[in-house]
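From the methods appendix. Each design record in this collection lists the tokenized structure first, followed by the designed amino acid sequence. Records were kept in a plain field format so they could be parsed without special tools. The example shown here is representative of the layout used throughout.

RECORD:
FOLD TOKENS (154 positions):
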């Protein structure tokens, strides 16, 4: 448990922020996974993705993607640019047509189970195929973050 759980999260009753992560990892034993890199994300026509990613490999692959605009600094800047209104809701820009590439995978078919941690809900699964040790996956449009469980077909 992080140090701030007892002094910040629990006293302020903020544990609900972890509900989405808890649902995503409910059937995962993280001890059986190892971090890997590189995790490549490209924007349309090879443009910068404006997103970051983390990956774990085990029997399947776990991925977390985050928009580079999903930060406290970006929300503060947007608030100030809006003239510091009394009512404000920050919406990071929508990221569309992003492609996630994972290298070092066995060739074959995969099912990608996308998950939206903001609402704690699984999205429609997608199919992808790895060729020459590389798996390219079209990422659903998102504003904040997305996660995925990528399972090889037997």
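DESIGN:
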């Amino acid at each position: 448990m992080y140090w701030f759980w007892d002094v910040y999260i629990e006293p302020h009753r903020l544990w609900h922020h972890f509900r989405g992560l808890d649902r995503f990892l409910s059937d995962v034993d993280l001890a059986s996974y190892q971090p890997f890199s590189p995790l490549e994300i490209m924007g349309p026509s090879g443009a910068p993705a404006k997103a970051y990613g983390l990956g774990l490999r085990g029997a399947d692959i776990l991925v977390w993607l985050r928009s580079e605009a999903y930060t406290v600094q970006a929300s503060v800047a947007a608030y100030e640019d809006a003239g510091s209104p009394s009512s404000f809701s920050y919406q990071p820009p929508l990221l569309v047509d992003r492609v996630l590439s994972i290298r070092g995978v066995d060739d074959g078919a995969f099912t990608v189970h996308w998950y939206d941690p903001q609402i704690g809900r699984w999205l429609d699964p997608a199919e992808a195929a790895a060729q020459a040790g590389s798996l390219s996956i079209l990422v659903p449009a998102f504003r904040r973050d997305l996660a995925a469980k990528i399972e090889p077909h037997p």
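APPENDIX NOTE: The chain has a mean pLDDT of 91.
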